[in-house]
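Sequence in, structure out.
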Amino acid sequence: MPSTPHYYLEKLTDIHSKLLGRDTVVDIFLPFQYEKEGKQYPLLILNDGQDSEAIDLKSTLEKLTLSKDINDVIVVGVHAGDRMHEYGVASKEDYLGRGSKAKNYTRFIMTELIPYLQYRYPISRLPEENCIAGFSLGGLSALDIAYHNPDYFGKVGAFSGSFWWRKRDMKSKFYSDHYDRIMHQAVRRGKFKPGLKFWFQTGLKDENHDRNKNGVIDSIDDTLDLIVELTKKGYRPFHDIQYLELEHGEHNLKTWKEAIPHFLKWAFQNKK
């Protein structure tokens, strides 16, 4: 056994999804000798798993495990298919009809992928140990999946989440932030789920748009407004909700690579 803890990668390309009507590609990052440990591991499902190498996921897991900042975890990076239709909010397409397969993607995660993972790997069945996360549209998708499946996911992370997702064109004279942002409405109409915890990241350079001319870019406004909605539901900032704002953060993989250690330490902190 090597002196340094490390992870190794299994790439699965033979998982056919009837719900998505395509073969899926999944990267599995596994702790060394996980089969011999005789224990179950926390699970992280990561949307846009094809970007795992670009965000330096494997070496970051190894570094944080070696420093004992996080516990061993099994990470499942799901490669994206049709992002504009499979990611989104399951209950409602956006104003251009995007997100039309989001309901099937949620069902793929919950009824096809997870049962397969549980059969093949020693994954925890405790919601408080399991997490789903994603970048941009993948972050929107992750939040929607976790919010509606709190019996399986107790934590969710969204990096530069696409919380602008809306049911009416912003240029319409009838557009309203309050009524037309789809994820905000889903939270507003939903119920408080005890134990569910949220992690959000934005960057001051995520974008340049400022639709309400308040001097704050839309991606930050949309995220903070969503945090307000969660707070109204009963979730507590700094306890149930964590927010990371990066001064030089942009809407790209370089920024999310910088943020990923913060997220992993939040989600899988070694409390010993």
